[in-house]
Amino acid sequence: MSSFSCWVLPAALLALLCCPGSAEKAFEVYIWPEQVVVESSGSLEVNCSTNCAQPESGGLETSLTKTLLASQARWCQFLISDISQDTVLLCHFTCLGEQQSKNATINPPKQVILKLQPTSVTMGNPFTIECSVPGVAPLESLTLTLLRGRETLYNQTFEGATVVPQEAVATLNVTAHREDGHHNFSCQAELDLRSRGGGIVRSISEPQVLEVYEPMQDNQMIIIVTVVSVLLFLFVTSVLLCFVFGQHWHQKRTGTYGVLAAWRRLPWAHQAQVA
Length: 275
Fold this sequence. Notes:
The protein has 275 residues and is α+β, with helices and mostly antiparallel strands.
């Protein structure tokens, strides 16, 4: 046996004797589910547990209504009721004078908002589809899907683990087609919480309608201009004809007599008659 091996074995035994706690596993606290979405005014069963063999105390802290369903030394089960807002649950245990805790979050479904900008557009021109969900966490578990009828136009996923809820936005620029006016647009939000003890939560926005107008063709413009020009010509012609016939009718009634009366009113004509 080498001199190195002779020194290593006594050193390891000495470390175990001097630090017996280093070989012990630190106790942990677990809560399940860790994150879940529950319908408003709904309820949820939550389990708190620990790997401590003989915990001194334990429980669950929350601002919501809780009911103890069952418990033993290393675990307890609660029913959380009247869920109406985002809530944090705190599961805690004390073991050998040390306290550990674990958090879980409960969220009501988030509203999915869809906007079309503009809401009316000429065929061939661009418009924007925007979908937003306020206050979502974790973003990496969220997928936003933009739909036209049942057709998927775009999928938006998010990267990076976030603990604080953030707004999620998906935007798509599209060129308007004739068929766009025949379908509703909507947005579906899918939050996958299976890794945290929840399920797949899907919410969908209110449908939105896009008004699509066909562009006016050049030949249509020519026809419109021609029709307007003809109507204007007929109107002007009718006004002139009315004026001409009115003058003619007036002359037939007063033409000869009117000239004779005007001639008699002249001074020299009056002198000629006296002579």
